[in-house]
Design brief:
This protein folds into 2 domains: about 325 residues, Glycosidases (TIM Barrel), CATH 3.20.20; about 130 residues, Methane Monooxygenase Hydroxylase, Chain G, domain 1 (Up-down Bundle), CATH 1.20.58. It is built from 15 helices and 14 strands. The protein has an 8-stranded parallel β-barrel with strand order 1-2-3-4-5-8-11-12. The protein has a two-stranded antiparallel ribbon with strand order 6-7. Strands 9-10 form a two-stranded antiparallel sheet. The longest helix is centred in the first third of the chain and has 27 residues. The chain is globular. It binds 2-acetamido-2-deoxy-beta-D-glucopyranose (2 copies). The site of one 2-acetamido-2-deoxy-beta-D-glucopyranose (NAG) has 7 residues, from helix 5. One of its GO terms (molecular function) is glucan endo-1,3-beta-D-glucosidase activity. It is found in: Cell membrane. This is glucan endo-1,3-beta-D-glucosidase. Keywords: Cell membrane, Disulfide bond, Glycoprotein, Glycosidase, GPI-anchor, Hydrolase, Lipoprotein, Membrane, Plant defense, Signal.
Length: about 525
């Protein structure tokens, strides 16, 4: 009897402990829904420290990441964790690895084998995939990588086999959803684009042989962005509006329709059962009228609940694998596709979340865990000097500042849309100043600008303070900074030219070549 009593108490205690544990987990973010990963890009002037990011991933229960290269600073930070990693090979290296199995072996040795086998006795990195190329068949590249992608994939896979890792590490390539189209918008009319059909046919055969997945990037936001008449509700997962009917299937969202267009294309190419992994999917929060935290929250909530339900699509019911795009904002991304490009982060540049999101897919209205241990620069901002009464010189200075920093939050439908000319200038000056690590030289603009210690943020328009960061992309070339400023002072026509050849333009060009338009 006494024993029974004891075990009753014991049982209660255990239940209490379990409850307390569950509550703590709830506050910290439970495990993410199975199959969920996140893209971790670093095209930022001040990227977060990899160790901070890895802790943030753990705090949020995220178990898979996809990288766009194999930066050893980043990859090493993942060692000793159980986080599953996809590393990448940028497009500008495809021809090198297509042409040389030695180079491929070298890459695998340095960027895969070494990491898998562990660093400084802290355990290895769980590398499972290599994405060879990033959207290499995108139409805008005009076929530039069509011939090199598969040979590079083969050489990298052979090198992996040679290293004895062939069963563990799989090779694939991240393809943009524009590699297939449907002339009628009905999934069943889907087919691979004619100019890349042969190349994809060969890649499919490779993926099939190696049991590797087809990796595809799908963006309902872009459907909306590219077509003014696109029915907005179809971009989300809780839409009550229009549907697309096709054969025996009814589509209530464009994601399902897009993925099933791929399924049809695969079927026609002879691979009806090929596994599909979504390499990128997400919603930006600024830089466009449809890009805001409200829409992003709605999109992700629907997407994550859908993943949790394992409903899949009409042609592919069941669990899905997806990598969200993206972890945090990247202020050096090319904005050629649109001003929203620098605002894909679920987290801001400093690792603070932008909106509630429940990675477990339970649909709770909860905030994810912010990055911990981020060190900010001084609480200083650069703004238009309030003594300046004649604003005639302001537009010129504003353009100059925006030419060398990220001003994509200005403009109609964006977070800083309500600023007047003076506000615009202050925002631009501050962006320029922060990007250059608050260098006093960078807050001059012929005396138009001044440093303040009171936060000029207003409403949704945030004036950031940059974080401390170690990165080779930093604007720390003071000579260039001096040149930029003196050029501006002297009001030369050549200023713009200088900007084009300046350090930012150079960095952007290099990155654009390397990573494409992602
Ligand atoms: C390993 O990857 C990094 C980052 O992507 C790259 O810079 C480096 O050249 C690679 N190493 C080799 C041997 O190719
Ligand atoms: C502020 O900048 C935005 C973006 O360039 C522009 O659309 C807007 O007209 C500017 N406002 C003023 C008052 O100049």
């Amino acid at each position: 009897m006494a024993r029974a009593k004891f075990s009753m108490w014991g049982l209660c205690l255990i239940m209490i402990l379990v409850l307390v544990h569950y509550q703590l987990q709830g506050a910290q973010g439970a495990d993410a829904v199975p199959g969920l990963g996140i893209n971790w890009g670093a095209l930022a002037s001040h990227p977060l420290s990899p160790h901070i990011v890895v802790n943030m991933l753990k705090d949020n229960g995220i178990k898979k990441v996809k990288l766009f290269d194999a930066d050893s600073w980043v990859v090493s930070a993942l060692s000793g964790t159980d986080i599953e990693v996809m590393v990448g090979i940028p497009n500008d290296q495809l021809s090198k690895f297509a042409g040389s199995s030695k180079d491929a072996e070298h890459w695998v040795k340095e960027n895969v084998t070494k990491h898998i086998h562990g660093h400084h006795h802290v355990g290895g990195v769980n590398i499972r995939y290599v994405s060879v190329g990033n959207e290499p068949f995108m139409e805008d590249y005009k076929g530039m990588y069509v011939k090199t992608t598969l040979p590079a994939m083969q050489n990298i896979q052979n090198a992996i086999d040679k290293a004895g890792l062939g069963d563990k590490v799989k090779v694939t390539t991240a393809l943009n959803a524009d590699v297939y189209t449907s002339p009628t918008d009905k999934p069943s009319d889907g087919e691979f684009r004619s100019d890349v059909r042969d190349a994809i046919q060969q890649i499919l055969s490779f993926l099939h042989q190696r049991d590797s997945p087809f990796l595809v990037n799908i963006y309902p936001f872009l459907s909306l962005f590219k077509n003014e008449n696109f029915p907005k509700e179809l971009a989300f997962f809780d839409g009550q509006g229009q549907t697309i009917d096709d054969k025996n299937a009814q589509y209530t969202n464009v994601f399902d329709a897009n993925l099933d267009t791929l399924v049809w294309s695969l079927k026609k190419a002879g691979y009806p059962d090929m596994r599909i992994v979504v390499g990128e999917i997400g919603w930006p929060t600024d830089g466009n009228k449809n890009a805001n935290p409200h829409n992003a929250k709605r999109f992700y909530q629907g997407l994550l609940k859908k993943m949790e339900s394992k409903k899949g699509t009409p042609l592919r019911p069941g669990a899905m694998d997806m990598y969200l795009f993206s972890l945090s904002d990247e202020d050096l991304k090319s904005i050629e596709p649109g001003n929203f490009e620098r605002h894909w982060g679920i987290f801001r540049y400093d690792g603070r979340p932008k909106f509630p999101i429940d990675f477990s897919g339970q649909g709770q209205d909860q905030w994810p865990v912010a990055a911990k241990g981020v060190v900010y620069q001084d609480r200083k901002w650069c703004v238009l000097n309030s003594d300046v009464k004649d604003l005639s010189k302001v537009p010129n200075a504003l353009d100059f500042a925006c030419g060398g920093a990220d001003c994509t939050s200005l403009g109609l439908g964006c977070s800083c849309e309500n600023l007047d000319l003076a506000g615009n200038a202050s925002f631009a000056f501050n962006q320029y100043f922060q990007t250059r690590d608050q260098d006093v030289e960078a807050c001059n603009f012929n005396g138009l600008a001044t440093i303040v210690t009171q936060d000029p943020s207003r409403g949704s328009c945030l004036f950031p303070v940059e974080i401390e960061s170690r990165s080779d992309m930093k604007m720390e070339d003071s000579k260039t900074l001096g040149q930029e400023q003196s050029c501006f002072r002297e009001q030369k026509q050549k200023c713009e030219l200088n900007l084009e050849t300046g350090i930012i333009a150079k960095a952007l060009k290099r990155l654009y070549l390397r990573y494409g338009k992602r």
